[in-house]
Each structure stands twice: as structure tokens, then as C-alpha cells.
Amino acid sequence: MENNSQKATFAGGCFWCQDAVFRMLKGVESVTSGYSGGDIENPTYEQVTRGDTGHLEAIQIEYNPDEVSYNDLLEIFWTSHNPTQAGGQGSDMGPQYEAVILYHNDEQKDLAESSKKNLEDESVYDKPIVTKVLPFKNFYPAEGYHQDYYNKNTSAPYCSIVINPKIEKIKELFSEKLKNIE
User: Fold this and answer.
1) 45-64, pLDDT tens digit by residue?
2) With the C-alpha atoms ordered 73, 75, 77, 83, is the resulting torsion angle positive or negative?
3) CB 3.0 to 4.6 Å from 33: which of 26, 67, 77, 142, for a disulfide?
4) How confident is the model at residue 169 (pLDDT cuts 50, 70, 90)?
């Protein structure tokens, strides 16, 4: 199973939110919060939050495509962020919080662009989709306290106010794709 693992990288606002959502999925072997796309090697949270490093807060997922497809991951991603909000997500604003699908190969690029086009063609949203589809450039894991943040801090106000509604939405819409949790 380990040899069959593939990677997917998504930026959709605060990485704590995306991390919490994708950890719930069957076939997801690991989720790492980190920084992607910029030119500074091994950036710190403090550097990235300034908004001038070119890095996005992102997650890198290792998954087993025999258990969860890239299309499934895309479907969850589109549902777990607001693809019509430019400049960030919710109250997390700035270039480091923009929503981007960072594809690792041509197949991922084609699937990501196709899924975005389908949403646009079906007029799923009443505003234009601004989530970008860009080539993967790099990924640097965030500091340890950012990893699995939600599960370590479920009673923190940000988790209760911002992350819990996303998790409940995913549980409601995709229960058949979730690991046995709770």
C-alpha cells in the first residue's frame, strides 16, 4: 500500500481547516500542514504570515488512490472552502490564505481544471470561481504545533467557530467517504 501512495497539495485558507477535513477521509494516509509556492526555503510561520514570501498555507496529503481518488479529494476540497472568495478565506485574509490547487503532474492538472470548469458550467456558485490551479513548486512542513492542530485543540475558539462547521458539512455530505471516527 505504501508504494502506491500519491501526493496532493491544496491551499484553501488556514491550513488547520484543510488539515482537519482531509484527515477524516478513507484512503488518506497522512496530512502535513505547511508552506508552498514561495521562494524562501524553510520559511517560518512568522515569515509567511507577513504575506510577502510567495508561500501559501497549504496541506500536503499522502493518499492511497485505490481507496480514494484524486477526484474525490478535489470534490472535498471544493466543498471545504469558498472558491469565490479572493484574497483569502473567511477572516483569514492575505496572499498566504488564497485558495489554490497545486498539481503534481499532468493528470492532476487535467482533473483539477476539469472539475473547476464543471463547477463553472453548472453555475454551482453565484460568483466567479477564483480558486487557482497552479503547478506544484515546493512544500515545507510547518512547525510542529501546526500539525494536526484541530485534534489537539478542539476546544480552542478558532476550532469551534471556524473548523467545526466545515467538519460538520463534510460529515453530512460525504459520510460514506469518511473513516470511522468518534
Assistant:
1) 999 999 899 999 999 999 99
2) positive
3) 142
4) very high
Contacts of 64 (CB under 8 A, 6+ apart): 1, 4, 5, 6, 27, 29
Q: pLDDT tens digits, residue range 13-51?
A: 999 999 999 999 999 999 999 999 999 999 999 999 998
What's the rounded Cα separation, in Å, for the pair 104 and 132? 14
- Residue closest to 25 by CA, chosen among 69, 89, 82: 69
In 3D, which of 123, 134, 120 has the Cα closest to residue 36? 134
Cα–Cα dist 169/158, whole Å: 17
pTM: 0.94
Cα–Cα distance measured from residue 40 to residue 132, given in angstroms and rounded to the nearest whole number? 21
pLDDT at 182: 52
Neighbours of 27 (CB within 10 A): 19
Of the residues 8, 11, 14, 48, which is catalytic?
14
Residue 159 among the catalytic residues? no
Rounded Cα distance, 40 and 36, in Å: 10
Single-letter amino acid, residue 124: V
Cα→Cα distances 151→11, 12, 19, 23, 113, Å: 19, 19, 10, 10, 32
pLDDT over 50 at 177, yes or no = yes
